[in-house]
Amino acid sequence: MMSRVLHSFQTQESLVEALSLSIIKDLQEAIDERGNASLIVSGGSTPKPLFQKLSTLPLAWEKVSVGLCDERWIPSCNEDSNAHLVKTYLLQDKASTVTFVGMYEEGCDAPEAEKQCSQKIKEKLFPFDVLILGMGNDAHTASLFPHNVKLEEAFDLAREEFCIAIEPTDAPYMRMSLTPRAILSAKHIYLHFEGREKQAVYAEVIAGDDSYAMPVRTILTQNDKQIEVYYR
User: Among residues 153, 79, 71, 149, which one has the least CA distance to residue 110?
Assistant: First the structure.
């Protein structure tokens, strides 16, 4: 089974238009089936235009819960947090009525909060209807960074907790990340990246098999779940 479906675009506008409409369709199907839907998103600069577009589209947004693939372990009021990014760009306009479920827990360190965070996500966001991943130039996704000491634990598909605390060696802040098992549980999974540099990274990712060197491989080279790849 081919686990990747590629969607290539010439412009950011055309990519965002197509991806946003596909996401809305998936969320609408979930609402029709069970009365609510969940959307799991990533941080970074790439999804900002997508978030802005989604916020303008008609949907019963009050029936949608939004969560994160990963978070920097800082309060949501901090501009470096993914929660702040989502609230600024997605939870606006028509999407201002969504229920946002963040990862950060006040008053405890990330490693201490793994179980609490996992339980919250399972109770308030699971099952995941739509999950949007990004990809760094180092081939990290969520906060699964290359050769990190926590990757072996994160990659353990028998691990029950959905969340894992990770300290990057080359990026700021302690992190909380969804595990590959949690990510691959989503009904619809999208990978969104832009630019020639990341196109080159993607080509290298799918040509190899060492997920510790390029963690996004653990999502892209499995054959159980289809990944929709939107890029330009």
Answer: 71
pTM of the shown model:
0.97
**Which tens digit of pLDDT belongs to each residue from 116-134?**
999 999 999 999 999 999 9
User: For 4-231, CATH number?
Assistant: 3.40.50.1360
Identify whether the C-beta of residue 231 lies closer than 8 Å to the C-beta of residue 198: yes
Other Cβ atoms within 10 Å of 22 Cβ, number: 16
